[in-house]
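Interim report to the steering committee. The following record documents the input for F-box domain-containing protein (791 residues).
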Amino acid sequence: MTTKNQRIDVNTATVEDLEGLIGIGHGKAEAIVEHRNKVGGFQTLCDLIKVPGIGPGVVDPNRSMLSCSMPANIKTPRSKCERETRSTVALYGASPECHWLPGTTRSRQPQTEQLKIKSEPGMRLRCHGNEPEAPESRDWIKLCSKIKTEPSASSSSCSSNNSLESTVCPLKKETMDSYVSPVVNPYKPPFDNFDASSESEDESDTEDEIEAGRKIVLNSSPSPFKLRSRIPVPVLSQAIGKHFMKRKSEQYPDVILKKKPCHLQQSDPTMRTFGTIKTSGASTSTPRRRIPSKQNPPPELAHWLKVFQGWSNAERLLALDELIEQCDPTQVRHMMAVIEPQFQRDFISLLPKELALYVLSFLDPKDLLQAAQTCRYWRILAEDNLLWREKCNQENIDEALVFGPRVRRKSLSPLVSSPKAPCPYKALYMRQHQIEQNWRTGSVKNPKVLKGHDDHVITCLEFCGNRIVSGSDDNTLKVWSALTGKCLRTLVGHTGGVWSSQMQGNVIISGSTDRTLKVWNADTGQCTHTLYGHTSTVRCMHLFENIVVSGSRDATLRMWNIDSGQCLHVLMGHVAAVRCVQYDGRRVVSGAYDYMVKIWDPDTETCLHTLQGHTNRVYSLQFDGAHIVSGSLDTSIRVWDVETGNCLHTLIGHQSLTSGMELKDNILVSGNADSTVKVWDILTGQCLQTLQGTNKHQSAVTCLQFNRKFVITSSDDGTVKIWDLKNGEFVRNLVSLDSGGSGGVVWRVRCSNTKLVCAVGSRNGTEETKLLVLDFDVEEHFGLNSALKKL
């Protein structure tokens, strides 16, 4: 057993000694002892790693508590002796011609063994293989051949203390069995008294000094210094230590060395010590060259630049190419660091404000918002009010569209010019963008439910501002608040069902099966005028300013002044019921069940053009002042020129009755009883999109509305769908009745910028008649909504 402070020798330790170490249990301790007995002992602690189950993680924590003595039955391999020889020679400059004494092994020599070396004065060791062999070298070889030594008593024994170790180096293949011991002085370190002046000593050393340096006596007396390494270190005297050695591979090319020894180039006259540099630096050093800079350029630089400036553009490019090829990577990176900023200049900040705004006007609003985050000056430019007003105009956004018709620019400007809204038109644009996102993906709030027509059919629906007007076959009209969902007024007076209506401001006009038109005040609910003249049901009407044109089943059209209630004109010419009518203040266009479309001059009450081409009843009309679009039961849609009456295009694609159409600019959207919706360009007659697919309506399309982004469609299948106008893709269902498919119907839809009003019910009592109001408005936005509510 070992004491607490005593190290454990791995070559003599028992299982009980080892199992108490860190990470070594009884099993690993037995494995170590078994492996030690099998290999005959460990040479170093690192040999423990060869034991199965023992790794560096076990050896390293216990290294301070372990020791390893060389086992007596282990002989040093030849290759190891050769490596030790080369390491010793390279470090201390011993002669590569030294050999072991005949009859000895290549293990450590005992300390009691004495070796004597005799040589002649002037002996020198060299290590440069490319130099001719000097006479001193030949003398040294002769001297080595005469060395005699006493036989070793125990050549294979090895002490565990720090004794010096002999080395081996073969001289020639034919003399491999002759060995000589290296020259060692155990009492003097090799460089204890070495200084710069020792190199300048001449070779006038006395014979006694040289002889003392060449005689080496190995005895058991303690050494004045100890080496931690077990590699044999020959200690030379000053007389021999100042000489340097010669490589064995250079002198004897037949010997293969596994590791090249280092040169000790102390005979090189160019080599200096720190002492010589310090003493001679003041007299021999040359003045240092200053680092070139713009203030201190090289003298040749001005001439080089002058030559470069005299070249043509092609010559300069060629010179630059050659120059780049000659540059190091660090120099190329320097060029990049200098050149790149030249192409990253903030040209927007360098331009006048007017030109900078003109450049920014070509950016999309999304890019403008990102540009505003670049720097403070870009933010000022990107939030310019005129710039965003142009963006609003491009998107057809105005105050009336976003906030309603009551809000005008004069009333809006002081509101949005507050510190919370430094850019009014940007606020308008951002609000409109958020509203569009609500239509697309926003959560559909619980719709307001407006009930009041019992189980009757809602035949007509109007939505303007915050008022909703619904007409029914129960002979009444109702006025609702879109904000609260309450019924504000019930307009009673007709004696028949209401089948058509129009609203403008606070004026409501209605047509009924009682053959009359009535003008109502929406604020008071009073009937201001009753217009008599038609002899059958008033089936359609169109209001323009204070003139309303009505069409009846009596095949006539009448024009009325709603302020005075006077009939201005009667237009006769159709031979069947008039189903649809349009008026733009200059021309009247009508479609009837006689397959005809007529263009009228109301002032002269004459028919300017009769548009023939349809082969069945005309059910729908659209008129923009230049073009007339008519939809018929013959499944076709025709585009006419209003001035000439010529048919410009016949739009073919639907399979049934075109029940509803809407025209804006040159874009026409048509809904058909075949459950499809199509988008057309009336200028080219091309069908741009067909709104169908797996999410299409499952029954006839009853009504539709569209704006610049979306198409809203309703159907007899009880759904209201929203589609993307540009690509025709289905967005989502806005309304889906539980009774859809079993009788639930959406009869009419009307939309504003932020709200959707749907008239729903059924023909078999499965769905209650009601109005649904869906709100897609945003919450407080730049403080505008709360301010507008005060108006």
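The chain has a mean pLDDT of 75. The committee is asked to note this result when reviewing the revised timeline.
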